Amino acid sequence: MTTTDAYPSELQDLITTTFSRPDLADLCLRLGINFDSLPDAGVAAQARELILLLARQERLPELLDALRAVRPNVAWPPVPPGYRLPAAAPPAPTAGGGSSFTLGSVKADNLIVGNHANMTINQGPRYDLSGDFRGALLNIESTLRDTRQAIENLPAPDDARAALIRLVGRLDRALQTTPPDRAPQAAEVADITKELVKAAGAARPRPAVLRGLGDELRQAAAALADAVPAAPDIADQLASAVVDLTA
């Protein structure tokens, strides 16, 4: 009997990278779920909350049927036999992407900057961060959503495309934790990822071009490693997976 959180996480990855917010709202309507009851925290958090809600109601097979109906080209993983939701599934964050930090006497855990949110931190002369932090991250999310659409059109087996979609979902969530002053570097990682997948979808993919873009992606992610530690490993897996498709 499956008790691991691996299945909800895998399903969340696929929903996050194949559904926009309006798409997810339509899915909820199809399932008779009030979309407004989900946290207004981005598609990733909303997808997770929807999965947990339906799992508690033992309606995951119904969710899978709906997902296959609206996204038939995605390799949706079947519900494991005898699956039960883990007894202590962690609560969904109240907004997308989070971190924990301390500034002097100010401490915040899972700090979330929601859509169009503004935040100002003033902690003596050293800290003075202000502005719309989420805007740049929304651009990254949009870029990687375009990348997901390109992956769906790649001439590759379903399992290979699903694996790439999961990697892009992991990269998206990792980049959403980027500190605001490093957003340009995170955007570069997202842009190179998009270019790499686009090159793989060419009528006659050129291995040398793919390897070059893969190396660029690794270098860009490595430059961001101090701020987003997961980025280099995900980028390396992504680059290798795309190159392998055309090997």
End-to-end Cα distance, whole Å, is: 38 Å
Assembly classification: single chain
Q: Rounded to an integer, what's the Rg over CA atoms?
A: 19 Å
Number of helices: 9
Say how many strands there are: 4
Give the overall average pLDDT.
Answer: 76
Q: Percent of residues in helical segments?
A: 55-70%
- Shape, principal axes of CA atoms: globular
Brief overview, please?
By secondary structure, the protein is mainly alpha-helical. It has helices spanning 6-18, 21-31, 43-56, 60-70, 134-152, 158-175, 183-200, 207-223, 231-245, and strands at residues 101-103, 106-108, 118-123, 127-132.
Describe the structure in your own words:
This protein is about 55% helix and about 5% strand. Strand 3 (about 120-125) and strand 4 (about 125-130) form a beta hairpin. The chain has three domains: about 1-95; about 100-130, no CATH class; about 135-245, no CATH class. It is mostly helical and about 250 residues long. The strands form two sheets. It has a two-stranded antiparallel sheet. It has a two-stranded antiparallel ribbon with strand order 3-4. The chain is globular and about 50 Å long.
